[in-house]
Amino acid sequence: MELIQFLCLLIIFYNVSVSQQLSIRANSPTTTTKSTSTTKPTTKSTSTTKPTTSSTSTTRPFTTTSNNVSNASNPLAPSRLESIKNSYSELNLLSKTNPSDFIFDFDKAVTGVSTGTGGRTVSATAANFPGLINHGIAMTIGFLAPCGINLPHTHPRATEINFSVDGDFQIGFFQENGASFIMNEIHKNQVAVFPKGAIHFEQNLNCVSATFVAAFNSEDPGVLTIGNSFFGSLPATVVGASLGGLNITTIEDIRVHLVQNPSIGIAECKKRCGLYTFKGESFMNFCVIQIKKIQ
Q: Biased composition, Low complexity: where in the chain (predicted)?
């Protein structure tokens, strides 16, 4: 515990130093603004004729179908995706695409990515992978950290089949009112199925990273993270009524502690793997408790 207390002191000292630096910067905006604004007039005058050249050069690659796209996971113009989607035949669709539209690099994806303390998930759907349009399939790869969990969620428009690449996963789903909760473990080279719309999760049970691949029978499966959506999106009054009259203050406090998916999972796994995770105020509260023990 003495080591933890020492680390807490260091982190609190660091946070204070950073906050002081930020406050100094925040209190002197006029100085930096003026110094930059005095030099900008000459820059603006010299660059007034150039914006048209640069703006056209940046927009052309988006609208030109012969554009050399090296990575199909780069963001695409919605108008282009809509044009491909509305093709009257497969040949017409192919005429609007590039060869690079039919590959997807999960390592270099910039859209469809969710990153949390428990790892990250990368999804290839019709929204960021044009080659999937009108083909009714999609895929997500989950790179879960030790004890990482892909939080309970649903796919409103797709059934999922989930393959363990390397790891042991606890998986479970709940399909509808009156149904039984189903939970299993899958190991390397095993698969699990989650019915369309079922609330389900995947938890890495090991103290090393693990990977799963999820395939869907829809190019637009959708995703709804249950906890974040229930507490974060519904009116607090409705949430409170659903929980037996829980007051709004308590609900707002819960909202502050909602985590990004994937997160670190169950306490048993964290204890077994020696993981200590804290988030924001919870960590600072822990430090305060530890420092009080010194006094």
A: 28-74
Tokens encoding 11: 């982190």
SS3 77: coil
Say which residues have a Cβ less than 8 Å from residue 142's Cβ, sequence separation at least 6.
119, 120, 121, 150, 202, 211, 212, 213, 214, 262
- Give the tens place of pLDDT for each residue, 22-81: 444 444 444 444 444 444 444 444 444 444 444 443 333 333 333 333 334 444 788 899
Tell me: cis bond preceding 262? Omega within 30 of 0 counts. yes
134 Cβ neighbours under 8 A, 6+ residues apart: 85, 87, 90, 93, 219
pTM, to two decimals: 0.68
Domain assignment of residue 8, yes or no: no
The answer to whether 174 and 143 are in contact (CB under 8 A) is: no
Please, where are the H alpha helices in 88-225?
Answer: 90-95
Q: How many Å from the N-terminal Cα to the C-terminal Cα in the chain?
A: 14
Enclosing domain of residue 129: 70-273
221 within a domain of the structure (yes/no)? yes
